[in-house]
Design goal:
Elements lengths: L1 H10 L11 H8 L5 H50 L2
Helix pairs in contact: 1-3, 2-3
Length: about 90
Amino acid sequence: MFSLVFCLYVLLPTNKIESLAQGSALLDLALADPDPATDAYRRLAATCDTIAAANEFHIERLGRIFSLGSAAIIIEVLLWELQLALP
């Protein structure tokens, strides 16, 4: 039962994890600069770093909950085997 709850929590969609902005918006911002390609790459890298930092806490929490769900599955299988072994 606990493994099902933990696994569903990990698999449910969440809006706490951000995704990358549209690339066209980054390029539009860079067109006024002398070298748009270099500035676009710089902005893209900065955006990726910001998003990765924002998502780190949520991804670590999902990893911990997934570990709990995996442990719950192992415990449930062991208890089920014990129940089958007992008369």
